[in-house]
Structures are given as structure tokens and as C-alpha cells.
Amino acid sequence: MAEESADMSVKRAKQDEEDNGVSESAVDMDKEGNPDYISSLIPGWFSEISPMWPGEAHSLKVEKILFQGKSDYQNIMVFQSSTYGKVLVLDGVIQITERDECAYQEMITHLPLCSIPNPKKVLVIGGGDGGVLREVARHSSVEHIDICEIDKMVVDVSKQFFPDVAVGYEDPRVTLHVGDGVAFLKAVPEGTYDAVIVDSSDPIGPAQELFKKPFFESVAKALRPGGVVCTQAESIWLHMHIIEDIVANCRQIFKGSVNYAWTTVPTYPSGVIGFMLCSTEGPPVDFKHPVNPIDAEESQIKSKRPLKFYNSEIHSAAFCLPSFAKKVIESK
Amino acid sequence: MAEESADMSVKRAKQDEEDNGVSESAVDMDKEGNPDYISSLIPGWFSEISPMWPGEAHSLKVEKILFQGKSDYQNIMVFQSSTYGKVLVLDGVIQITERDECAYQEMITHLPLCSIPNPKKVLVIGGGDGGVLREVARHSSVEHIDICEIDKMVVDVSKQFFPDVAVGYEDPRVTLHVGDGVAFLKAVPEGTYDAVIVDSSDPIGPAQELFKKPFFESVAKALRPGGVVCTQAESIWLHMHIIEDIVANCRQIFKGSVNYAWTTVPTYPSGVIGFMLCSTEGPPVDFKHPVNPIDAEESQIKSKRPLKFYNSEIHSAAFCLPSFAKKVIESK
């Protein structure tokens, strides 16, 4: 079944992990039986070890741990790194660092919003740190921004430790809904949004439903004709099997255009992250040629923060894929 | 002085290293006082720690160490990793892994060679592993390929452990010169080559001269009018100060076009690597629009190995830069 495939991928990755003995050898457990990521490699460094990328780990030197907590959904940690600024970690996986968060937040937001004229109603699923909100707020055509984040602690932690990211919540157009994104979408009247942005973590843990077919069906229903969705869609270097499944699902569900784009984020595994960009049946959307370029100066005045990463050239370039990925994605 | 600036950058990085205490705390020394990279983190993992990227390290799980040696120029190691195939390490820094070497080798070669019509004489400086030769050999217009590598042990180790990379040496058009690239270039008659590819390691160790102004002057002299050079040019995320210096030097020396391009390579620090692409005065070269597209089928027949990464779309996309990098590079 298509909706089980993402799970299957994770199972495959878990099998790899067992084969490689990653979890046994590399992650210590603390007194409560939780993985103790801080002390697992060099003392004083944080290492990102996961069955999603077996056999490799990126480490950052820790200056100070600023927060460690356990919400109803996940382990949350914030630390001051020596060269990447403050770092937000969920269940042992880096979500944002102050040094490179611009690449992810700007691309996941402006790739969809610059591809349609005058977006007015936008929904963000996940994205509790507020960074996507900050970027959506640059678009003066936008009248209303809903965000549905499952984990209130992520929102609170971001407001406390990442004010330049959580600044997105200060925009008066934003309404925060704390709850399950899947349930929220089911209750949305048909054709409500111009754009939906799914800023999820990996398909292990609370985000796993966001990679399955029923979720994409709800997204399509919630969009107006010719509306667009952009979802976090993993790495072409590490997760082609997950990407294959997502692309196959999206081609069945979204009757407009279906595209894969990607960008560089140094602190994400393999250094890249991808996005699925799809549109519903209706006015055609050509994602590769943005019709709604964001005016750097206007956006700067509005948000008091210049774009660091996104521009119209890099928008189009993001859809150009290496041959090995192009072959797989275009065959779906 | 401009030619000292790359050195200055390294000094700055070294200062950062001392401030962060990376070398003291994280790299053990073996009995002979050499850094012991294998045992520096978790036993059984290789970790890449360097003053060039302070405060972070990428680690690969080691299945087996296949070779460790010390040449006249550097420490050389080959290991079998658990998920990236065989890995070549020089002075503790990953040069190639079997899993992602395609991205680097194909881009550093085809970006210059697809940008000019009918390249005939090509010089490779560095690139002792042979991967660039393999890619140059795909171009049927090429009649002669010189390679000047300083370290014979790199050539021998590659031939022994990386046959799919060192296969480049089997092409009858190749002549290997073991020696110093700087001296080799000085002896080259003016206007000899259509293209020069500088496949160097970082500007610490044997490759440091390859980042300085006198070297670029020799390259310009060795090229025909409208000839092209492509040099390894570090990461926009980590080394903007080095890149600034290289760009400033190149704008003074190359009177044709001067461009910066980049690509993803997961096992390089920050996950990306860049290239300086310049042309000498003469027939104009528009690097962003390749005039000599490589025919996938023809190249496949000739080399018996399909292109995995490069295509004409990704060629043009490689010149699109994030705003933060574009601003600095275009201001030089």
C-alpha cells in the first residue's frame, strides 16, 4: 500500500541501523533510559546519530546547554554551539541553527508563495519555531496565516531562545492552533487556502502521518483550485526511497503540477533538504518560473530583516536535479 | 597583499581553532605525534576535525582500515566505511568517497569543458586520484590530457583501492607528470591549453600555493585566448573570506569572465563545494550557458559509465548563488 511505504522506508533504515550497530555502540542512555546525545561522542560535543542516516553523524561543539525538556511528543533540547549559534534539537535531530536556518525557512516558504499571484490565506502545518511564519509575513498580499503545531513546548522554547525566528508569531495576521495537523486539516472547509506549507520533522516520531497519502488528500481538499503545497521532503542523497513514495502519492493526488526542489542546509544530514511542490487542478502553476517575485526592499522594510538566502534565480535553480535523482523522480 | 590573503584566512581559522580548543580536546596523537583521527571520537568512527571548519565534525563509521601511509607530502589513509563505500583521506580530510565522488568529479570537469567548443588540450593540476581524468576522457574532442600531481603515493593508492576512479589513467590521451604544479605551469609555453582544471585539497598543506595570485597568473599564461580554468574554491557557508580573496585575484588576472559556481557533496564540510570558473581575454565564454553539451549516450559508450550527476540544467543552476554569497562575490 502506498500509504505504508514511508513506514517501510523507516523500517529499512532501522534494519540498516541494527546491521551497523549504530544505536548500540554510539548512543549512551541516561539514568531515565533516554538517549544521552551530548556525551555520546566527544565530551562536550553534540552528535546527530539516527537510523535515518546510518553510518554517519554530524557533530557540533557545545558551549552550553540552555534547555532540556520532554514534552508529550518528544525530547527538546537547546544548546549554544561554538560556531553555529543556538541550536534547536528534537528527539536528537537538529531542527534549526541560527547560522543556517535562513536557507530552510526562506526556501520552504518563498518557493510556494512566489509561484502564485497574490496569496491571501496560508496554512502552516508544523513549523512551531515560527521561522516559516516570519517568512510568510514578508508577503504583503497575505491576509491570514493559520499555523497548526502539535507541540506547544516547541513554540514556547522558540519564543524563549530563538527570538529572531519566533518573531513570526508577532505578525497580527497569525493565528496559532495547538493540535494535530491531520485532524486540523480534516476540519478545514474545502478550498480554504491559497497555500499550505508543511514544515515537518522526519517521518519517525510525531511527524510520521505527514508523509502518508491520507494527509496529502486532506491538503489537496483544503486548497483552492490552483492552490499550492510545499512539504519538507528529505534528502536526495539519503532518502530516495522515501522521496519516490512521496512523489508517487503526490502524482496521484495533485492534478496540477508536481515538482521536487532542493536546497543546501549545512546542518541537515548530507547537507541538503528537499521539498515537494504541488498544485491542485485549476489555474496552472509553473513552479520553476516564479510569477510573484518578492521585492527585497519591500520585504526588508516590512520584516526589518533582509532576505539572506532566497532570490528568484535560486528559486528556479532549486528545481534542477542531479541526473541520478532526476531519473528516479521523473519516472514516477 | 592579495597573495597573502588566503594564508591570512587560514591563520584566522587557526586562531578560531585555538579559541575553541578543538585540536587539544578532540584529536589524540599517536606515538609518533601524528594526529590519530580514527580513535579521536567513538572507537570505530572516523571524524573529520580541522581548523578550516572549527566547532563541527562529520563522522563516518569505519568497517576496516585498508591503508595508512605517510608520503613526502601528507598522511594518506583509505578505509571501508559502512555506508559511503571506500574513503580516501589526506591529512585527516576526506577527499573522495565512492558514494558521492561523482558530484565533485563531474562538476569540476564538465563545468569548464562544456563551456567551450571542442576542447583539445587539457591540463589537470592535482587530481591524483584520477577521477577528473575519467571525466575529461568523456569528451571526444580532447586530444591530449596532461596531469601534474605532486604526490605519487596518491596515484598509487587510488589505482590500488579506487579502480573506478583511477580508471581515468587508462585513457591513452593521458600523460602523468609527478611534480609540483606551480613549477610545471611556469615551464608551459604560453597559450598551450584550452582548459586547466585545478583539483586541489584545502589551502593548508601541499595545496596552499594553488590559492595564491602567482599561481593564477601562471594558469592565465598557459591558457590560449578564450581558454578556461576551473579551480576548487571551498564552501560559501564556511570560507567566504577565502572565496573573496580568490575572486578578487581572479578579477585582476582573468580578463574574460569570472564566475563562482557550486555543488552539493555530502561528505565535504557544510555539504557543498565551490568552483572558480574564469576565462582569458579572447573569444568570450558564457559559463552559465554551456555551448558544448555532453551527450549522455556518447559519453556512456566511450567511458562505459553513465554520468550520475551532471546535466546541462544543473550546469546552469550551479551559478545561481544564495543572496548572502552573491552580494559578497559580485561586490569584488
Alpha-carbon distance between the termini of chain A?
Answer: 16 Å
Give the largest interface pair and sizes.
A-B, 54 and 53 residues
Biggest sheet statistics of chain A? 7 strands, mixed
Number of helices, counting only DSSP H or I runs of 4 residues or more of chain A: 12
H/E series of chain A, N to C? HHEEEEEEEHEHEHHEHEHEHEEHHH
Helical content of chain A stands at 25-40%
Strand order of the largest sheet of chain A: 10-9-8-11-12-14-13
Strand content of chain A: 25-35%
Cα shape of chain A: globular
| Helix-strand category of chain A | alpha/beta
Low-confidence regions of chain A: 1-39
Mean pLDDT of chain A: 87
Radius of gyration of chain A: 19 Å
Give the oligomer, counting copies of the same chain as homo and different chains as hetero.
Answer: homodimer
- SS elements, strand count of chain A: 14
Description:
Two copies of one chain form a homodimer. Chain A has 332 residues and is of the alpha/beta class. Chain A contains twelve helices and 14 strands. In chain A, helix 1 packs antiparallel against helix 9 (240-253) and helix 8 (213-222) packs across helix 9 (240-253). Chain A is globular. Mean pLDDT of chain A is 87; it is low at 1-39. At the A-B interface, helix 2, strand 4, helix 11 and helix 12 of A face helix 2, strand 4, helix 11 and helix 12 of B. Strand 4 (56-70) of chain A pairs antiparallel with strand 4 (56-70) of chain B. Chains A, B: One of its GO terms (biological process) is spermidine biosynthetic process. Chains A, B: It is an enzyme of class 2 (transferase). Chains A, B: One of its GO terms (molecular function) is spermidine synthase activity. Chains A, B: Pfam families: Spermine_synt_N, Spermine_synth.
